[in-house]
Design brief:
2 copies of one chain form a homodimer. By secondary structure, chain A is of the alpha/beta class. The first copy, chain A, is built from 11 helices and 15 strands. Chain A has a 5-stranded mixed sheet. In chain A, a hairpin with a 4-residue loop joins β4 and β5. In chain A, α1 packs across α3 and α9 crosses α10. The two termini of chain A are 34 Å apart. Chain A binds a DNA duplex through α1 and α3.
Amino acid sequence: MTKSANAPVRHATMRERNLAVVLEHVALHQPVTRARLAELTGFTKTTVSNLVALLEGAGLVRDGAPVHEGERGRPGVGVSLHGDGAAGLGLEVNVDYLAACVLDLAKQVRYRHVISSGNRGREPGAVLAALSALAAEAVAAAAGQGLTVAGAAVALPGLLDRDNGVVRHAPNLGWSDVPVTGAPGLATALPPEYDNEANLAALGELWFGGGARLGDFVHVSGEIGIGAGIVVDGRVFRGAHGFAGELGHLVADPSGPPCSCGGRGCLEQVAGQEAVLRAAGLPVTRPAGGPEGSLGRLVERLTAGDAAALDAVTRAGRALGGALASVVNLIDPDTIVLGGVFSPLAAWIRPPLEAVLANGSGSLRRGAPPVEVSGLAEGAAVLGAAGLVVDRVIADPALLL
Amino acid sequence: MTKSANAPVRHATMRERNLAVVLEHVALHQPVTRARLAELTGFTKTTVSNLVALLEGAGLVRDGAPVHEGERGRPGVGVSLHGDGAAGLGLEVNVDYLAACVLDLAKQVRYRHVISSGNRGREPGAVLAALSALAAEAVAAAAGQGLTVAGAAVALPGLLDRDNGVVRHAPNLGWSDVPVTGAPGLATALPPEYDNEANLAALGELWFGGGARLGDFVHVSGEIGIGAGIVVDGRVFRGAHGFAGELGHLVADPSGPPCSCGGRGCLEQVAGQEAVLRAAGLPVTRPAGGPEGSLGRLVERLTAGDAAALDAVTRAGRALGGALASVVNLIDPDTIVLGGVFSPLAAWIRPPLEAVLANGSGSLRRGAPPVEVSGLAEGAAVLGAAGLVVDRVIADPALLL
DNA sequence: CCCCTTTCGTAAACAGCTTGGACTAATTAA
DNA sequence: TTAATTAGTCCAAGCTGTTTACGAAAGGGG
């Protein structure tokens, strides 16, 4: 019947799962007493004590100060995530830079390092070597804080075959069918993971975005290209081959300019960073980001009321709104979050975007979903990558003994 | 961390799950010996014997004729699904008809009944009463064959709130906020389920479609409106509120005619059954289906080479292809299946559709996914509904004691 | 025809995990 | 100081899958 996660459950499986149940509740409610954990999980106090003891043995949680919950009675001891135990390493390869980030189990940022690096057209081996060095540096810095990096996740700007660790197509890097596994510096306890930058940026928004994201949203991640990370019920939706969310290649204008993907009038060619800069009459030299980059100058001109700039951004907003209307009809997200380069442009791009979106997303549901603006801007993908590792540890603590 | 299916596992849970594991393997490999089940599941022979005994007690499986697998040795007894035990009832409310269908555990059709019924604009209570009578008839017919209907699922042509059993908006029926629960005749052991017609038609295609559907596809379900059922990894993708897959309201032509949804130039207004009939110069009187209906006449004219008809269908194909290009970029399905009214029109609609699709779905992946044609045509949704019930029983046999 | 080998299915003892109740510990209210 | 209340642990019991052993039913070889 229907391909399904259909593994037999034995005693060991039960234990593993229940360890995760307790650990997840610790993460959500720390510091929390064993008695309260028993209420929260439905286990008996005995079972909770046993499970917590195991988690303590693995260095994942720690007893802390006494907690007094009710009025009377013996106070309990607060169990918390062990802040100086396991950690997750996030890495990112992008066109202009390499980034690394270490998160402890509580998803607190403990280390962060970004180096600018012109990776477009650069030899993949050289890029991966630099990334490897960055990773080694991060692992060492973490160790200096008492943290042990349990695993790493790498964000890459392109379509990739996650099962085999191969970048199938990354037009902005100029990579095709590049294997990325086997980088040293990633030799951690858990095998490294690789994922699309847009997907990981969406997870970054889920865990670190302003306001609690409810776990059902689409994060529009405009960097050089335009991607979308689709999060449903707290998990990334990837489609059959992992290529879902390619927002940038929806057709915005069938008679528009040709695109590197082979199509015509893709959204990227109309609302992508380079297209907007060009339409506004600005140079597209790299790096475009930062206050002094082309993007900063675009914002200046918009603030100054420059007609060409305003027109370019308005057009981009309309195109993006049209594409998002399709997203709403097909994916039905709860919220839309604008990230990446769209974040600083939000004030100007949002009005035309919302107008078109409201028109195209039907009144079958009750109006279009709200369009919010990410406060994370650039760092979202590294954060999401590191958070993914932490989540994996918390969802299956048995991996660490 | 992250809202997740996070229930503690106790002994009873383990049993329930393992019963399902064994039952699913029986369904896939019947007739199958206990020894082979032990290999397939990884359980010991003892455990398999115990679990099978429980399933036999619940009337879900049955011992059959001896099976000789190897050369030498004692033959085993074949365990099969109990064909005359539990059954699933599927029901469908559509604009032109009501339908019912009973499936045994092996998903064999054991009863089927369709009555034409003009439901557009009819009082919801009357429609539900007629459906209830149809259901009671089906349950009685099943009982006559020794089958016990364990539960029912109802397919409805509109957006609905599945949690509360309310039809939010069904424009083609003229229903808004109609509660559909509490219909007698659906008082089965398991509570009845309600779902969108497009979603259930996709499941019908998954289980009964020609050629094994691999569990990752989009089924385009054109009846009066145009919907899409998105199946990922064998399960329906519903989005945050259950409104995903509203293909019919993607904007095909921003300057097109207004739509009942409030938008403009929705795909439905260009490629929907009524729009195509109108463009071909045919009346849109109901029922449109069947060899004598308007649809049959359209096929006649297409076969005869009528220019207006060919032009209308070609235009519809282009619009549908454009919408499907968006689907491919956002959802990344493995296959696209054309069902409903598009099935008989496939010969004429597919070429323009595929041309536009190939153009718009980029070469980032390797070409557009294959476009196949469903052989189920009309009955897909009822079959899917009944199959859903059967699947639920097989995925959780503990529900039946 | 008899006996050995192979395979199927079951029975009894065993091991892992959660449960339930009893018991100790620590704190507040009176 | 005493009673009440809450936190956490200890130990016996129950449920479930595993291990080991054994009887049952077939084919092959002498």
